[in-house]
Amino acid sequence: MKKLLLSSLTGLMLLGLAFPLLAADEAQAKERTVKGEAMCAKCALHQSDKCQTVIQAENRRGKKITYYLADNDVAKKFHHDVCQENKKVTATGTVKTVDGKRILTVTKIEPVKD
After folding, report:
1. DSSP string over 32-79
2. Which residues, 6+ apart, have CB-to-CB distance to 46 below 8 Å?
3. What's the CA gap between 37 and 82, in Å, rounded?
4. Strand 101-111 and strand 64-69: pairing?
5. What's the pLDDT at 16?
6. Which residues in 93-113 are b (16+ Cβ under 10 Å) and which e?
7. Contact 30/94 with Cβ under 8 angstroms?
8. Distance, C-alpha 103 to centroid of its chain
9. Model confidence over 58-112: pLDDT tens digits?
C-alpha cells in the first residue's frame, strides 16, 4: 500500500514538473506576423544543401533573426518567387525553435508592395 501511494505521489510530482514545459510550448506556438526579406537558404545565404525559403527580419533591438519556413504547401508555392531574387514580405504563421533554429510554419505570405 505504501509503495502504491509513494509511486502515485512520484507520478503526480513528475506531472507537475512537466506541465510548465508543456504550457511553454503551447504559448510559444501563438500565431505571429513576421516582416522581413525572403530569400533562398541555398542560393542566397549558402546555408543549406537544398533550396528552402527563409525570412530575415530585425527584432526591436535591431538584431537580425532568420526564420526558416517549414515545408508546407504555402512555402513551396512561394519559393519560386524568391529562389533567384530576394523580396520583402509579410508572413503569418506559428514559430517554434528546433535545434537553435526558428521554424516558421506559414499560413499566409505576401510580397510587400512599395
Report:
1. EEEEEEEEETTTTS---SS--EEEEEE-TTS-EEEEEEPSSHHHHHHH
2. none
3. 9
4. parallel
5. 57
6. bebeeeeeebbbbbeebeeee
7. yes
8. 2
9. 988 989 999 999 999 999 898 888 888 899 999 999 999 889 899 999 999 999 8
List 32's β-bridge partners, or say none.
Answer: 93
Per-residue pLDDT at 37: 94
Q: Which amino acid is at 29?
A: A
31-40 and 53-58 beta bridge pairing:
antiparallel
- Do 95 and 103 form a contact (C-beta atoms < 8 A)? yes
Cα separation of 65 and 59, whole Å?
Answer: 7
> What's the CA gap between 5 and 50, in Å, rounded?
54
